[in-house]
Design brief:
This protein has 361 residues and is an alpha/beta fold. It has 17 helices and eight strands. The protein has two domains: 185 residues, 3-Layer(aba) Sandwich (Rossmann fold); 145 residues, Signal recognition particle, SRP54 subunit, M-domain (434 Repressor (Amino-terminal Domain), Orthogonal Bundle). The protein has an eight-stranded mixed β-sheet with strand order 3-2-4-1-5-6-7-8, sandwiched between helices. The longest helix is centred in the last third of the chain and has 32 residues.
């Protein structure tokens, strides 16, 4: 509901600990990046001492303007004045962060109702923690009965909770889940697609979202350049580092794995924190190499490996393992670029067909 005379007002409500303040920044970032909006972030939570500073810091890191407020001011006045400020300064969207409580109480609802009456928001969105399960459903019901929600933002969907609460909330409130938080990074907020979430809940993955994330990170030109390097056997550790960083920008290992069919169950056996640490360790090893070493890993002899291990805080064995894995990966990439799957099968010595029930006839 943003196609109104500017500014459109979005009010975010919810309990403490649901990720409301961070979601204000994430939503502002998403609206600017994907919808070409010019959002103003408004800290109207004067009760949690760090809330105002937190939003200012987040806004600064994203280069989004944050309305100047402090704990001595009335939240209703902050919201009203911020909307006027946004209108006068050319902001077409104003996103207001409100106070939360440990539980729903009359005082909280009274203040939120006053803010709604003062600014007439186009959207009143509940920020709810998906990890709290049934409790999140009860919270949604309480806020909707008091304020008349227009939608829900479900946070922490990259964790073990796969979104069952989402289905219950939709059923109880009749209000759509509009966005989902899928990680701690400030770009880890996405438009909610119910059919894709149903697929994730069933463990069938979400390939469409994975493709969308990849498209956002890789240009056609970069992809073609990478293909040329692979075909000419020029793929270097610098290129590998770039690909590694691209994957990390796309989201956590857990959230990415949940989008790949069949990987969800496999990831239950993997420690996500350990996987993230492994990625950081590999990056540290590569960054401890010289430009020449990253461009031509064949020159990395014993003394160089010892220096790299010392510089990256790892062992020589870990450096050796990375170089061996990189060499094997280059072989696989070469085979795939030359002969497709057939080339890969020949490299595997015909083992793959028999494993799939093929082999000699």
């Amino acid at each position: 509901k943003l196609n109104v005379a500017p500014p459109a007002v979005i009010l975010l409500v919810g309990l403490q600990g649901s990720g409301k303040t961070t979601t204000v920044a994430k939503l502002g970032n998403l609206l600017r990046k994907d919808y070409k909006k010019n959002p103003l972030l408004v800290p109207a939570d004067v009760y949690r001492p760090a809330a105002i500073e937190q939003l200012k810091t987040l806004g600064q890191s994203l280069q989004l303007q944050v309305y100047d407020s402090d704990v001595s001011k009335d939240p209703v006045e902050i919201a009203r004045n911020a909307v006027d400020f946004g209108r006068n300064r050319g902001h077409n969207v104003v996103i207001i962060d409100t106070a939360g409580r440990l539980q729903i109480d009359p005082e909280l609802m009274s203040e939120l109702k006053e803010i709604v009456a003062a600014v007439h928001p186009q959207e009143t969105l509940l920020v709810a923690d998906s990890m709290t399960g049934q409790e999140a459903v009860n919270v949604a019901r309480g806020f909707d009965q008091n304020l008349g929600l227009s939608g829900i933002i479900l946070t922490k969907l990259d964790g073990d909770a796969r979104g069952g609460a989402a289905l219950s909330m939709r059923e109880v409130t009749g209000k759509a889940i509009k966005f989902s938080g899928i990680g701690e990074k400030l770009d880890a907020l996405e438009v909610f697609h119910p059919e894709r979430m149903a697929s994730r809940i069933l463990g069938m993955g979400d390939v469409l979202t994975l493709i969308e994330k990849a498209v956002q990170e890789v240009s056609v030109e970069d992809s073609l350049e990478l293909q040329k390097k692979i075909k000419k056997n020029l793929f270097s550790l610098d290129d590998f580092l770039s690909q590694l960083r691209m994957v990390r920008r796309m989201g956590s290992v857990t959230s990415l794995a949940s989008m790949i069919p069949g990987m969800g169950k496999l990831m239950k056996e993997v420690d996500p924190e350990h996987a993230e640490k492994e990625l950081k360790r590999v990056e540290a090893i590569i960054l401890s190499m010289t430009p020449n070493e990253r461009g031509n890993h064949a020159i990395i002899n014993g003394s160089r490996r010892r220096r790299i291990a010392k510089g990256s805080g790892t062992s020589v064995e870990e450096v050796n393992r990375l170089l061996k894995q990189f060499t094997e990966m280059k072989k696989v990439m070469q085979k795939l670029s030359k002969g497709g799957i057939g080339g890969l099968m020949s490299m595997l010595g015909g083992k793959l067909p028999s494993a799939l029930g093929g082999g000699a006839r």
